[in-house]
Amino acid sequence: MLRVLLREVKEFKRASIVTPLFMILEVLMEMVIPFLMASIIDDGVNAGDIRHIYRVGGLMIAAALIGLFAGMAGGRYGAKASAGFARNLREAMFNNIQTFSFANIDKFSTAGLVTRLTTDVTNIQNAYQMTLRMFMRAPASLVCAMTMAFLINRKLASIYLVAVILLGIILFFLLRRAASYFQMAFPKYDELNASVQENVSAIRVVKAYVREKEETSKFRKASENIYNIFVKAEKNVIINAPLMQTTVYTCILLISWIGAKLIVSSELTTGELMSLLAYCMNILMSLMMLSMVFVMITMSVASARRISEVLLEESTLTNPENPVMEVPNGSIEFKEVDFSYNRDCAAPTLLAVDLSIRSGETIGILGATGSAKTSLVNLISRLYDVTAGEILVGGHNVKDYDMEVLRNQVSVVLQNNVLFSGTILDNLRWGNKEASDEECMEACRLACADEFIQKFPDGYHTYIEQGGTNVSGGQKQRLCIARALLKKPRILILDDSTSAVDTATDAKIRRAFREEIPGTTKIIISQRISSIQDADRIIVLEDGCVDGFGTHEELLETNSIYREVYESQTQGGGDFDEKAGE
């Protein structure tokens, strides 16, 4: 796990190495100052040697300035290294997420990925900075101060040693107990972020159904879960501070009491006692800093594990060694295709699908909710891999293609239409970033989007809010269709993409497809018979199996499911999932 994370230090290795070196230099200067102070008291003040006071005082000032410089440099380089490390982690995670297949994405929730990219990375950043600065400084200060104390007086220095050992043992058990709570806390952030994301993205529905109180209650519950876990963890960690203070004052009292006796018996000088008291504070403050570092590291272990999960996740889809770089035509062939989202699932989503579609055909797909219509078309552009069998596009197995080449030639307008913040032209050019204004307008004319765009005050430069909240559902669908057309694909898949469009506009779009892009294979998923009845052929799906495949007239004669749907919609006025008369 550490190896995976530390790979992202990259260009900040130098800053990461220099930071602890400056911290050690700062510690050395701090250790020298009490020693020089003892010399001033014993050899300068007590001896009445003013020249010695000036000379050693000058050395103290130099040591203090060097220590100040080292501390500032260590802080600067430590901040640079930790911030750069966090930046690289976020970038590496985001880049890896872009390679994920749909199967990989299904393993992580959206809220979980957001938490890992934000809260978890921030925890790692803070822990890394603490490690570079304090984790090097504190042990060095502890060892140096302990060494200097033993050089001055072993008897008094033994008090420090006993205190350090006792504190170390107690802190180990406190932090070990707190670690389990910290590991429980960070996954709870996923629930909190999920609550916020769901509420904000669906705020119109929340207000329409007056569910503000329920949503607030859900958020409060998620927030209280995090609060309760951190309270339990902090109850263990908080003992650290009073324990340290008690130890510090106990050591000071013991050293002052025993040291005073040693001064009286001439076994210790006043300057040496002052140095020992200074080293006492250094030793115990170093231990305090070490405990803070361990707390931070303990908190970040769970975050590190969650980040490494994303970094180590490998896409379930990979390009072959020598991929096919051109899709010759839009023909599609399914050969005994089985598919399951979960390979351990007993019942497959698609079973024994055999289909042959000629290039340039218009194919309709009809089926009840859950009949695997979307799953079927997702396999064509290799958003998922088949469990068994094979799919051919343009005469080649989809697994033989370079995925980018294949997906550029298989344009999909998904059920959930997404527009991004930016102008209409910016959104359209997701289909083809090099498309001219004229090409964008032509695609919009084919998708019947030009008519409403021209009514906007800013036309094609109208700004689209995030998620397309300032356009209607039907307008959003038509913009997404135009975006897909700009790719000039061999295969165009519309997954229920005209459901929010009126039937007259739907008919115009289909007529434009038929007349303007006859060479493109068009696959239209719809619950409306009127949207697919003039297709060359229609696929009827039932529970993941092909129940019928033929023209509108053929299916009316031979397929009971299709005939029932047709009658319910033309006679009873119901939709696909309602029987006539109900």
Please, could you describe this protein's structure?
The protein has 582 residues and is α/β, with parallel strands linked by helices. The chain has 20 helices and twelve strands. It has a six-stranded mixed beta sheet, sandwiched between helices. The longest helix is centred in the N-terminal third of the chain and has 50 residues, at 50-99. The model is unreliable at 573-582 (pLDDT under 50).
Task: Give the SSE layout.
Blueprint (H helix, E strand, L loop, with lengths): L1 H5 L6 H33 L4 H50 L2 H6 L2 H43 L1 H48 L1 H6 L3 H26 L2 H25 L5 H43 L19 E8 L10 E8 L4 E6 L5 H8 L7 E6 L2 E2 L5 H7 E4 L8 E2 H5 L8 H10 L3 H4 L9 E2 L8 H13 L5 E5 L7 H14 L4 E5 L3 H4 L4 E6 L2 E6 L1 H7 L1 H13 L10
Parallel strand pairs: 3-10, 3-11, 6-9, 9-10
Antiparallel strand pairs: 1-2, 1-4, 4-5, 7-8, 11-12
Helix pairs in contact: 2-3, 2-5, 2-10, 3-5, 5-6, 5-10, 6-8, 6-9, 6-10, 9-10, 14-16, 19-20
Which terms would index this structure?
six-stranded mixed β-sheet; 20 helices; elongated; 582 residues
What's this model, at a glance?
By secondary structure, this protein is of the alpha/beta class.
* Distance separating the two termini: 59 Å
Largest sheet: 6 strands, mixed
Spatial order of strands in the largest sheet:
6-9-10-3-11-12
User: Low-confidence parts, pLDDT < 50 over ≥5 residues?
Assistant: 573-582
What is the radius of gyration? 35 Å
Shape: elongated
Number of helices: 20
Mean pLDDT level:
85
Could you tell me the strand content as a percent range? 5-15%
- Helix proportion of residues, in percent? 55-70%
Strand tally is: 12
Structural class comes to: alpha/beta
